[in-house]
Q: What sequence folds into this?
């Protein structure tokens, strides 16, 4: 799925990369984010197992 970086209907609080943070305490903590695949590797299970949890 393709998403525009800053679509015309973006709220004014959207950051430069088009992300709207619903929880401001997480802003600036991009390095701590994990993908589903990263989380699965971390605990040694498949991505589908993580999804089911």
A:
């Amino acid at each position: 799925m393709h998403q525009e970086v800053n679509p015309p209907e973006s709220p004014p609080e959207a950051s430069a990369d088009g992300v709207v943070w619903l929880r401001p305490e997480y802003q600036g903590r991009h390095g701590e984010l994990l993908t589903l695949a990263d989380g699965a590797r971390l605990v040694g299970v498949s991505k589908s197992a993580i999804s089911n949890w």
Notes: The mean pLDDT is 79. Residues 13 and 22 are 10 Å apart (CA to CA). Helices lie at 36-43, 47-52. The chain is about 25% helix and 0% strand.
